[in-house]
Amino acid sequence: MPGRLQINCEFITSEDRLLFKISEEGAKGCIEYRLWLTRRFLIIFLRAIDNLLEDDSDSEMQVSPEALDAMKKFKEEAALAKADFSTSYEGGSEDCTLFSDEPFLANQLKVRRKSKGKYIMGLFSKDKTGINLSVNIDLAHTLRKLLLNAARQAAWDRPFTDGDKSHSATAGKDR
Questions:
Q1: What is the pTM of this model?
Q2: Cα separation of 91 and 69, whole Å?
Q3: Cα(8)–Cα(18) distance, rounded to whole angstroms?
Q4: Is 174 exposed, middle or buried (0-12, 13-18, 19+ CB in 10 A)?
Q5: pLDDT by residue (tens digit) across 131-162?
Q6: From CA 9, how far away is CA 18, in angstroms rounded?
Q7: Among 53, 62, 97, 132, which residue's Cβ finds the most Cβ atoms within 10 Å?
Q8: CB-CB neighbours of 54 under 10 Å
Q9: Does residue 59 contact residue 38 with C-beta atoms inside 8 Å?
Q10: Which DSSP string do the residues of 147-168 spell out, in sequence order?
């Protein structure tokens, strides 16, 4: 029987990266995986999750785009209602063994469909260090919310434009 799974994602300013942590409690105790996610990788990860969610909402029934959007929203709300965002992340505690002393930099994502609504998402480094996550649709919605919240914390959700005054002012001072 699988144990408790906890996931945390936070922006680390000094690294200009997201620290993505997963702790899993099982028969052999707790183990924590830590990965660095760059902005580029985050975009790839979010696209892959969006593709899983699209795959889930594809049906043989012919429905209007409005009905399809309403079904997607309903599934998202139902999945997020099941998720526990209030419990503090407990990975990194003395009871939890680290997979590696240092977080690894995720730069490769592999997605494999097990069955309708069930997938394996592999996050790997250049040297093939990594983790395979079993992801159902509920977890996909939860991951998406966690990643988007971390992107907002990092201000990675703001588009780059020529009209961005703060960027222009900084660029002018460097010359």
A1: 0.74
A2: 36
A3: 10
A4: exposed
A5: 999 999 999 999 999 999 999 999 997 765 54
A6: 6
A7: 53
A8: 10
A9: no
A10: HHHHHHHTTTTSPP-TT-HHHH
